[in-house]
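Q: My labmate handed me this sequence with no annotations at all. I'd like to see what the chain might look like in three dimensions before we decide whether it's worth expressing. Could you predict it?
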Amino acid sequence: MKPFLTFCIVGCAGLAFAAAPEVPPLRAGAATSNITPPLGSLRVGSFTPYPTEHVHDELHARCLVLDDGKTKLALVVCDLLGLHRSVSIEARRLIHDAVGIPSSHVLISATHTHSAGSALGVNRFVNDQELDHYQQFLARRIADGVRRAHNLLRPAQIAFGSFDAPEHLINRRWFLREGDERLNPFGKLERVWKTGAPGNEFTGPAGPIDPALSFIALREPDGRPISVFAAYSLHYAGDTGPAHVSADYFGAYCDALKRLNASPEEDPPFVALMANATSGDIGLNAGKFPPKLTRGAYQRSSMVANDLAARTHQTLNGANWKNIAVLDARFRELEVAWRAIEPELLEWAEDVEAAAPRLASGNLPIGARWPTTPEWVTRLSYAGRVKLLALADQPALVPLQVLRIGDICIATTPCETYAEIGLEFKRRSSFSQSLMVQLNHGYMGYLPTPPQFEFGEYSTWPGTNFLEPQASVKMLDALLDMTADVHE
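A: Here is what I predict for the chain of 488 residues:
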C-alpha cells in the first residue's frame, strides 16, 4: 500500500501543479491623436480668451492602454487647459463601444496648457452640457487614440521611477507683509497674493511645493521602449507666442523624451505622456531663469522640458523592470456643494455690471455678457462668474478615480489641486509608490485646503474656486478609501 500511496500523492501533486494557472504577462500599447483646433478658435488661459492666429506645435491626446490578461486600463493626457465632465463621459462611452474598456477604467486628464482651445463649453458651473463642435471632435479623437493604442497591445515590462526637481517650482501664494495687504476685486483685503517672483512686500510662501516627478515606464521584453507616463507639479511655463497654439512644456517634454528614448524610425513609435500632478498653487520659479529671455520664444518651456526629460531618461537606466502588474480601478462621483454665493456678493456683481463700460466689440471676459475696457475686465468677469455660480443646480458631481498598476497607485481629481493635498495623499496612501493627477474627467476650478480660504488670493475667490470650502477634505477621504479598496 505504501508505494501506491506515495505514487498517488506525488501524482496528484503533479496534476495540481500542472493545473495552476499561468499568470499572463503585462501588455501595453501607446498612440497619439491630434486634437489641434482650427485657427480662429478662442485661446483660453486668460480672463479674456482671444482668437488663435498660429500653431507653434500641435496639440495631442496621448494614450496608453494596459492589459494584465483580466483587466484593461486606458490613460489619456490631453493638451488642454481642462475639459468639461460631459466630454469625458462621451469619450469614455465611445472607448467602451470600440474596445470594451469600462468607463471606470479610463483616465482622461488635461495638462493645463494655457495656449489651447476651450473644451469647457459655455458654462463651467453645470454637471452636464450639450457638447459643442470642438468638444464632439475632441471626444472622438480621444476614443480614436485609445483604439489605436489598443491595436498596438504587445508584451511589456513595467517600471516605476521618481526624482526631485524643486528648482523649477515656487509656491505662487505668498503672505504679504502687514501694511502691504491688497484689495481683491470684491473690495476685501488679502493676506496672500499670487507671485512667481516675490519681492520685499512678501514674507514667505503660504504652502509647500511637491518637487517629485514620478513616472511609469513600459518597454518590450527586448528593451525597446513603448511609453512613459509622467506627472509633475508645475502649473505651466507660459512663454508661448502671442495668439499661438502650443502644448507648453508638457508637449516639449514628451518630444524631448522621445528623442532621448527611441530612434525616429521606430515602429510602433514611442509615446510619452506628461500629466499635471498637483499644481493649483505651484508656478514656475521665474528667479531661476536669466532675466533677458525673449518673451514668446519658448525658452523657458524648452529649458524645463529638456531638463526633466534628461533626468527621466537617466533615472530609467537604473529602473527595476517587472513582467507582471495587476490592474484595477475605482471610480466614484462624489456629491459636493457648489460654492455658496452670498446675497451681498450678488449685489456687488449687479453694481459692477451697472458700472462697467459696454464696448460694441472686442474679446469677451469669461463669464461676462459684453466686452469692456481693460481696467474693468477682472471685475466684470467675476461678476458674471458669481452670478452663474449662484444658479448652479446642487450638488456638483465630482468625478474621482483611482488606478492600480501593480505596486503603483494613481489618484485623481477634476480640479487645480493644491500641492499639499497631493503630498498628503502620498503620505496616507496604502501604496508606497503613489502619485496624484489633477484635472481628470472635468474642470471644477481650484481646490484649496480649508485653512487657505481665510488668507484669500485668486485661487480661493468664488468663480475661480467652484466648490465648497470642505471639498478637498471630502475628496481626499474618498480617494483614500478607494485606494485602500484596490490595495486589498
